[in-house]
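Quick one from the shared queue. A colleague (R.T.) flagged Glycine oxidase as missing a structural entry in our internal table.

Convert sequence to structure tokens.
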Amino acid sequence: MTHSDLTVVGGGVMGLSIAWEAVRRGLQVTLLERDTIGRGTSWTAAGILPPANDRTTADPFDRLRGLSHRLHPQWAAELRATTGIDNGLRHCGGLYLAMSPGEAAALIGLQQYWQAYDIQATRYDTAQLLADEPNLGQGAAATRLRTAFLLPDEYQIRSPDHLRALRAACQQAGVRLHASTLVRKFTERGRAVELETDGQTFHSDAAVLAGGAWSSAIATASGVDFDIIPVRGQMLLYRLPQPPFRRVINEGNRYFVPRDDGHLLVGSYEEEVGFRTDTTPAAIATLRQWAEGLYPDLQPIEPIRTWAGLRPNTIDGFPYIGRVPDRQRLFVATGHFRSGMHLSCGTAVAIVDLLTDTPPSLDLDAFRIGRG
């Protein structure tokens, strides 16, 4: 029998972040992952971190995002100092493009939001855009641009490197990591939580379910009722001699993320297809058509890799974060959809605040199971 102060179920960015935050606050932590730690959906994430300001908003989701946005540079520095791993956090800025009237209207609406919450945004015309990113000059942006905005406080993070750093930091701090360990159910028994796997039973004073798209299956088997909707997101990757852009380029739900080493990530194509993680020729062709239209130099180049991940969504788009209703020692942190990488720091702090009876960094009522 293995006993810990805390058992975290899920070895993606959410689970690793919670484990690292908890062990740094003095808890003895075990982490259980059904597959490979630091892979899965978190590994496939683009790592775009849009700017946010938790000091100027009362909206719960924006407060969570703003807290995380403030924490990411701190965590990146601490992870590098602890592990020697650069997680690729870059203060690169993001460009938001509108090619259609609908996209332009959406950006104008966002402009009002950015102004209201003191998020810096500069409107660009075509000439200003092409002066900022000259390699857009041969594509659709040169002739079809309706409007554009620069958000200088947008970051990018290299998801595989961030996960590698978190795993290394957890190992160094003494977190007991168990890969290929499928949790079937958890049960609260008196002053402990019992977690049943195929191989053994784990016991802890508390448990956090942070299993992404797979969370609701474990919850249902454990008598906890909430739904997570898996959304497949397909992406592709190019390798170029040098980065073609300085900034993240966004148009609607499509984007370019340029890495320092010349890799160019293109995403994404989203659809509800259950738990399938294969890529499809139609989706990859759609992404290529968009990418080549915006940056025609890609036309003769084949992507070096394609992949898909399952983004855990909820009915109302808010994640589930906090204590499980009618339970004292069971907690949940899942359903962050496209924002898991971005929201991971703030979610970890909020969960560990609850676990350690620390005055909360956030009001989590809006994220409770059974809301509304």
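Residues 60-83 form the longest helix (24 residues).
The chain has a mean pLDDT of 95.
Added to the table.
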